[in-house]
Design goal:
The chain is mainly α and 356 residues long. The protein folds into 2 domains: 226 residues, Rossmann fold (3-Layer(aba) Sandwich), CATH 3.40.50; 91 residues, Tyrosyl-Transfer RNA Synthetase. It contains 17 helices and 5 strands. The strands form 2 sheets. It has a 3-stranded parallel beta sheet. The protein has a two-stranded parallel ribbon with strand order 4-5. Helix 4 crosses helix 9 and helix 9 packs across helix 10. The longest helix is centred in the C-terminal third of the chain and has 29 residues. It is globular, with a radius of gyration of 22 Å. The two termini are 31 Å apart. The structure holds adenosine-5'-triphosphate and magnesium ion. The site of adenosine-5'-triphosphate has 18 residues, from helix 1. Adenosine-5'-triphosphate binds next to helix 1.
Length: 356
């Protein structure tokens, strides 16, 4: 089968910390569903260490240590390395060459308009300190990652939509100038708003490793409970239980929107049959924040306890993790080298092919 007719998935994560609930609901859960559906020809997960170094170049130890942490997180949520190829960006030199060629197809003005990069520049203080060129251009390297794997299905959170848009523009321009070579990708994002961009426990727009407002998949029960009880705000006008409350801009309800299904009511809060009924009660007055938080903690515990248990098993078998990565890298190297060769042929950077 030609790679253009195949269903190929690529996703990735920056090894800047352990993975959190935002990753789980925005991307990891979907990856496991895709893996188990058996409908896809290839599923690849790229650990984007080179990208992570663009804003952590002065702390390589952090990136190095988190590669293993991230693989532990993948395995604990149910990613099966026999069905999914897990590989490391820096081990795939074709990605660097592709990035270099694609840089020509993007203007600096276009890169400056990327809303996610703009927000990240502010957040990381680069607006004052000076912006590393590598960080500014990382959307181009993401285009290299996606196209190198011939990926057409990219399951991501909402913050990644501008990157996929940028990739689509690069693919279109490349194919127009050099002839039909690259595969056009499509982003797949969760349906529900809270799942597309899970807020931090502090209410900031996005749970993010770099903001330190996370519930990590490996956090223990006490930590999760303290984060929900101590950090999550509800409605500041909902002072007495009998007061009417707001469910919008209420972090506890944003998390319930993301994680609660009807089955949890039957199990833990049978007075309601679904989240809408519970929300109506809160809006009317008479439902306390303590009950809502307790319910959320139970749901999170039900999701996290099997993940934690699985992680424990893999933590005692780190050698196998290195084997998984070595195997993933060698498979990915073959795929990405082939794409680079196609790209170089299309760009006529194949000087020695016609000599004999
Ligand atoms: P960093 O702060 O280092 O950028 P991050 O927490 O944003 O880390 P990434 O590794 O950049 O995590 O993101 C990996 C994937 O997880 C992407 O597809 C991204 O869209 C998704 N993701 C990250 N945070 C969230 C979130 N809060 N809600 C939904 N999806 C998310
Ligand atoms: Mg990010």
């Amino acid at each position: 089968m030609n790679s253009k007719n195949k269903k190929i998935v690529l996703t990735g994560d920056r090894p800047t910390g352990r993975l959190h609930l935002g990753h789980y609901i925005g991307s990891l859960k979907r990856r496991v569903e895709l893996q188990n559906s058996g409908e896809f020809d290839e599923i690849n997960i790229l650990i984007a260490d080179d990208q992570a170094l663009t804003d952590n170049y002065d702390n390589p130890e952090k990136i190095r240590k988190n590669i293993i942490n991230i693989v532990l997180d993948y395995l604990s949520v149910g990613i099966n390395p026999e069905k999914v190829n897990i590989c490391i960006q820096s081990c795939l030199p074709a990605l660097h060459s592709l990035t270099f060629y694609y840089m020509n197809l993007v203007t600096t003005a276009r890169l400056s308009r990327n809303p996610t990069v703009k927000a990240e520049i502010q957040m990381r203080g680069f607006a004052n300190e000076g912006l590393p060129a590598g960080f500014f251009a990382y959307p181009v390297s993401q285009a290299a990652d996606i196209t190198a794997f011939n990926a057409n299905i990219i399951p991501v959170g909402e913050d990644q939509l501008p990157m996929i848009e940028q990739t689509r523009e690069i693919v279109e321009k490349f194919n127009k100038i050099y002839g039909e070579t690259l595969v056009m990708p499509v982003a797949v994002i969760p349906k529900n708003e809270s799942q597309r961009r899970l807020p931090g426990v502090d209410g900031k727009a996005k749970m993010s490793k770099s903001l330190g407002n996370c519930i990590y998949l490996s956090d223990d029960y006490e930590t999760v409970k303290n984060q929900v009880n101590g950090k999550m705000f509800t409605d500041p006008m909902h002072l007495k239980i009998s007061d009417p409350g707001h469910t919008e801009n209420n972090i506890v309800f944003a998390y319930l929107d993301a994680f609660c299904t009807d089955e949890y009511f039957a199990e833990y809060l049978p007075e309601y049959s679904n989240l809408e009924e519970m929300k109506e009660h809160y809006r009317r007055g008479g439902l306390g924040d303590g009950v809502c938080k307790k319910f959320l903690i139970k749901i999170l515990e039900e999701i996290l306890s099997p993940i934690r248990a699985e992680r424990k098993k893999w933590e005692s078998d780190i050698n196998t993790i290195y084997d998984i990565l070595a195997h993933g890298n060698s498979k990915a190297r073959k795929i990405t080298d082939e794409t680079l060769e196609k790209v170089k042929n299309a760009m006529q950077i194949n000087y020695f092919n016609n000599l004999y």
